[in-house]
Amino acid sequence: MPRLKAVYRCQECGHSSPKWVGQCPDCSAWNTLAEEVIEMATAAAAGGAKTTAGLTSFSSEVVRLAEATTVERPRVATNIGELDRLLGDGLVPGQVVLLAGPPGIGKSTLMLQVAAKLAKPAAKGQKGFKVLYISGEESLGQVSGRAKRLGIKSEEVYLLSETSLTKVLETMEQIQPDALILDSVQTVYHPDLSGSPGSVGQVRECSAAILRAAKSRDIVTFLLGHITKEGALAGPKVLEHIVDTVLYFDTESHQLLRVLRVEKNRFGPSAEIGLFEMGEKGLVDVADASAFFISGREGRPLPGRAVSVALEGSRPMLVEVQALVTPTRYPLPRRMATGLELNRMLVLIAALEKHLRLRLENYDVFLSLAGGMKQKDPAMDLAVCVALVSSARDIPLPPDQVFLGEVGLLGQISRVAFLPQRLKEAAKLGFKRAAVPQRSLKDLGKASGLVLEGFDSVSACAAGLPEPSARDDDDRYEKEAT
C-alpha cells in the first residue's frame, strides 16, 4: 500500500513545492502555500473495496433521475428545543454536523448535553443511542468531571481521549456507535501525513476519513472546530463543504446569551439562530427571545428608545434600538454603532439631515441594540430613524408602539418581508400600535390585532411624533454645539 505524500501547493496559482515557503516562487504571493496530498490509496491499488482501517467508499451506479428512489429517513430529536429547531426537527442518520466557536463559549458543554439526550430512550421500551465521545483536548477525568457538574450520567455514553486517526477509526469499528462526537477535529492527526495536527492537509484528510466512516454506517457525527481571530472557521474551507450542517457559536462569549447560528444545512432551514443561556446545569435554551430583549417597558418612556421586529431566518424577534444624540466638544463629531452596521447608520443620518432638516453636524451620535444583539435587517431602519429624532429633539416615544420599514436614500419607507409574522410577534408581547409602510396597509387589514399607522416617508413619520418638550437649556446646548 503506497504511503500518502504531501506537497505544498499555492492557493493562488497552483505552484507546488516539496516544502513550505513563505512566498510563492511563481506568483510571489505571501502565505498561500497549503499542504495537500497528491498520492492516495485507491480501491484498485488496495486489491479490493477496502480503504484505510477497513472503510468502504460510498458510490453508486448511474441511473435516470425518474428511476432514482427517494428514501425518507426518520428524524432523531435531541430534545433540546433550540437545537432541534435549528436542525429542522432533529437529526438525520448519517448526518455530519460541524460546530465551530471560540474557546470557552460552551461547545463541549452543549455536546455533553446532546450526548446525554441521545443516550436516553425516547419512549418506554425503546433503546437510546450508543454515543462515542472522543476528546483530543481533555483527559477522561476532565470530561467526566464536567459531566458530573452537569448532572450527566449514562451507561450508553462512551469516552475516549485520543488524537490518532487510526485509533479513532478502530474504536468506531469496535464500539459501533449510533452517534459520534469529536472534540475537536483540529487535534486529530493522520499518521501518514507529515504536517502537524491542525494543518490544512491533516484537517481535510482526517475529516474526510471520519465522514466516510459515518456515512457508510449512518452514524450521526458532530465535529467540533476552532475559529480564527477574525471569527472564521480554522482550517481548510473545504471542511465546510463536505459536512452536511455548519453551526457557529457567536463570538460574544462575555454576553449573557450564547447565539448559535446555522450557516449551512442540507436537511433543514438555514440562516436560523438559536439562543442559549449558560447556567449551573449547562446551556439552557431561550425559547422566548423577544421577552428577553424587550424588558422594562412599564417604566417612564425615555427619549431615544424605539422598538422594532427583526427577522433571523424564519424567527421574528423584538429588538430595542437605543440612540443618544449629544452636543460634541470635539472638532469632528463621533459616530458609533453597536450591533448595527456603522455605514448603514451614517446613511440614515444623512437621510434625516436632508429630508428633516435635522442638524447633526455638531452632535455626537451613538447607536446601540439592547442585549448585545447584532442585526442587519433593513426593517429596523425606521426604528433607527425615529430613535435618532427622539433623542435629538428629546421626545419620548410611545412604549407600546413598534416601527417597521426600510428607509431609502430619498427618505421613502419601503416594504419589508414577512410583515404579518413580525406584527403577530409584537402583538404577542403586548404592543398595541405599529408604524408600517403605507403600501403594506391594504394587505394587512386588521388580522394583526394592532392599530396600524401607514407612512410613505420618514418625514411623515417624524411629523406624527409628539411635540418636543420645552427645555431651559436649549440656548446653552446651541452655544455648546456652535
List descriptors:
alpha/beta, disordered C terminus, 4-stranded mixed β-sheet, Ribosomal Protein S5, domain 2, 3 domains, globular, 14 helices, Rossmann fold, 482 residues
CATH superfamily of the largest domain: P-loop containing nucleotide triphosphate hydrolases
- At CATH level 3, the topology of the largest domain is Rossmann fold
What Rg do the Cα atoms give? 28 Å
How much of the sequence lies in strands comes to 15-25%
Helix and strand composition category: alpha/beta
Number of helices: 14
Give the beta-strand count: 21
Measured distance between first and last alpha carbons:
81 Å
List strands and helices in order, with pairings:
Layout: E1 5-10, E2 16-17, E3 33-39, H1 43-46, H2 81-87, E4 96-100, H3 107-119, E5 131-135, H4 140-149, E6 157-161, H5 165-175, E7 179-183, H6 200-217, E8 220-225, H7 238-242, E9 245-249, E10 257-265, E11 273-279, E12 282-285, H8 289-293, E13 305-312, E14 315-327, E15 335-338, H9 342-355, E16 363-369, H10 381-393, E17 401-403, E18 406-407, E19 413-414, H11 419-428, E20 433-437, H12 441-444, E21 451-455, H13 458-463, H14 474-481
Parallel strand pairs: 4-8, 4-9, 5-6, 5-7, 7-8, 15-16, 17-20, 20-21
Antiparallel strand pairs: 1-2, 1-3, 9-10, 10-11, 11-12, 13-14, 14-16, 18-19
Helix pairs in contact: 9-10
